[in-house]
Fold:
Amino acid sequence: MDALIRSLIDGLLLGFVYGIAAMGLTLIWGVMNVINLSHGAIIALGMFSVYLLFTALGISAYIAVAITAVLGLLFGIVIYFIAVHRVIDAPELSTLLATYAVNMIIIGVGTSIFKTSPRNVPLDLGSVHLGPAVVPTTRLIAALVAILVAAGLFLFLKYTRPGRYIRAVTDNRDAAEIVGVPSAQVLALSFGLGTMLAAVSGALIATVFPFTILSGGSYELKSFVIGVLGGLGNPVGSLFGGLILGDIESLVPLVMPTTWTPVLEFVLFVVILLVKPNGLFGGEE
Amino acid sequence: MRRKLYLFLGLLVLASLVLVGCQSTSSEATSAPSSGGNEAEVTQAPAEATQAPAEASEAPEAKEVTVTIGFTQSQTGKYNEESSSQTQGLELWVKQVNDQGGIKLSDGTVVKFKTVYYDDESTGDKVQQLYTRLITEDNADFLISPYSSGLTSMAAVVSEQYGKIMLATGAASDSIYTKGYERVYQIYTPASRYLTGAVDLLKSLDPNLKKVAFVYENSKFSQAVVGAAKDYAEQQGYEVVLFEGYDPGTTDFGAFINKIADSGAEAVMGGGHFQDGSTFARQLYEKQLDIKYLALLVAPADNGFSELGDAAKNVVGPSQWEPSANYSPESAKAAGLAWFGPTSAEFAKAYEDAYGETPSYHAAGGYAAGLVLQKAIMDADSVDPDKVKAALDNMDLLIFFGHIKFDTSEDAHGLQIGHEMVYVQWQDKDGKLVKEVVWPKEGATAAPVYPLR
Structure:
């Protein structure tokens, strides 16, 4: 029983971080029907941003996470205007290739600068006891920051003018444009928010696990699974999807060898696509 | 219309020229071999060049031969740390032997060395490409293995195909040497004897402890080590309550740590290489797992392990060699073996002078590979590969790295049968972590600390 609770807590904490990574992917998809294949690369950039700010400039890791968020937002807007804006109305394959190209550029430059050697943000904040589970403080903080970011995004979309614009464009871009919503700016902002979430999740992961410039790829895959689980275009669903995936990762090893975890994850991915393509949490067509 | 077409064609030609130009410069840039030592293949001894022609015909031809040693280094990727040390060790040997005027053969030939190496990015595909290139384009005379068993087994396929002698350092897996290869020679203690001492040490510390968990990397080397250690532990009466591998590159050990806690294990052994091993140790510490003994492969022996701070404390690890290992001409005499090369202290000092850090066993392994090659060329009195091979087969000597003797049977040709492991532990000495040799007792520099926390 203790083992179950320990694993459940581990999974939940990690799940929040996975969740905001997936929110970034699914927000972009929901607003503009773009599958952002540079998602993983931006997660990796988020990791390196914290690493460099922390180790080279000596900035506190969590302030570095905040700086990374701002950088992520700006970077996303830049990517949008350079690579995505011109092909936004082209068939989906064009935007897929455009973001893939961005991915290759980031990975290529990143590999030549940072090499593929593993990095570590040497952050030791001790551990706390949660029932039978001992949780490293860094993981707890990562989960809390992820919850805050998710809540912030929710409130932003719900109550602010730009947030309402984003939702309007998501529902019907043409209609939104007719009533005067500046759609180019809204799309750029949405893309920026999506990359911001990716960068923040990368930044948080960096405070917990070692990473390389190529590490983003596996989190991007997880984001896809989570996105489909929670319903593509449904950011709140993504958060729950993240929790489910986090717990699959921590609970499955209790009953079978750990190497089976990705197999189960991707079987689930296919099953959801076949049975409930709009995700577990609705996402009406 | 026609003008436009010409213009277009012209631009196309220009563009392709630019592309070709870019490609050739970029391939040159990436392929430029990192070369150390002497550049000339065969040069006349400088003294001779200044002699008068009449005298030159009388003087014996003091020919200088530069032997090319080829290998790959993991300058990037997960083996970067270990591999770089290994290369530094080898380069130190090359520098020393060249500075001392090379090896003088009985026919007056002076043998000097140079190295050619590339970055294998810690991947097997690259290794095979690059070893082929080292042999066919760079004309390497002798090869040194890359770091790690996985990469070495890839390199061995190529070296054996071309009939080149390869000294395998940093490659402990037994299986490389049981494939019928005839020219691959192992410097390290093989994997099957890697962790067995850690089991012996545990037994000497706590005869009542019975439950052991093995958690290891799914790599050629770790599987070989842990498989053998598990059999040995069971022979010794231990109950193996968990035996599970993790994927290379794993960064989250949470699930494993929960499993270990669930299994009731009191001792944990396993690990893989430096990165995963140190992450595993760090997370075990963060999760405050209640175990009494932790022995991990590779990582604890590396000096970088101490950066984990308290998480590194009292962790035991096997080491191929330690600077404090007391191998000397006297111990060679006592063991009835021939002695060759510097003592451990001399090597450690030279290494520190050159690189400003204490040598790890990976560095020592690199240097030892060079030293073994040097001795084989001296014994063979030639750089002819067949004669050098015969000399390696007959080798039975003590160097600073330990006893070197190769299996010459058909089943396991080249397997190291002389060398033995030592076991280190990071101990807290006045708030500072110090690496001490704790096993075997004869070589111990401090008493082992038990339990872990």
